[in-house]
Design brief:
Layout (H helix, E strand, L loop, with lengths): L1 H22 L3 H18 L8 H15 L16 H25 L5 H14 L1 H14 L7
Helix pairs in contact: 1-2, 1-3, 2-3, 3-4, 4-6, 5-6
């Protein structure tokens, strides 16, 4: 998905523009650009896009790029009461969680039967990669195959 790399590059261009606004003393415009970048990140992580882990990761990366430009302990209405530092910590926790899910897949997939593998791919289609990987991680712990709901 080459367009995802372009979106991340766009976020970096927005950061350069933010710095120009801040250098000129226009913090309001810089905040508006941050909000636009956060909306882009959110759009990548919602709707049908949320079924693909790569879009989640790029959305998180764009959000992190935008948040790093803010005062880490500042208060911003558009962050719902969280500081940029708090939100960056949440994004980091999500990455750690994803790494655990990836390990579950690496450890479990090679040992799956054809029926279990079909069940897993059907879960990906219905619920998205995140949920299918969570199911697979739980399945590895429980060793009891389930059917998609």
């Amino acid at each position: 998905m080459p367009q995802l790399a372009s979106l991340k590059a766009l976020a970096q261009d927005v950061v350069a523009l933010q710095k120009q606004y801040l250098g000129a003393g226009d913090s309001g415009s810089a905040e508006h650009l941050t909000q636009a970048g956060l909306m882009l990140a959110s759009g990548l992580r919602s709707g049908d896009a949320d079924k693909f882990v790569i879009k989640q990761l790029v959305g998180n990366a764009i959000e992190a790029i935008m948040l790093r430009q803010l005062d880490p302990n500042g208060s911003y209405d558009f962050l719902g009461g969280k500081s940029p530092q708090d939100r960056l910590a949440e994004l980091k926790e999500q990455k750690v969680s994803l790494d655990g899910l990836r390990k579950a897949i690496q450890d479990t997939l090679p040992n799956m039967t054809e029926a279990e593998l079909l069940n897993y791919t059907e879960r990906q289609r219905l619920y998205g990669e995140w949920e299918a990987m969570r199911w697979l991680q739980q399945r590895g712990a429980n060793s009891a195959p389930e059917r998609p709901q």
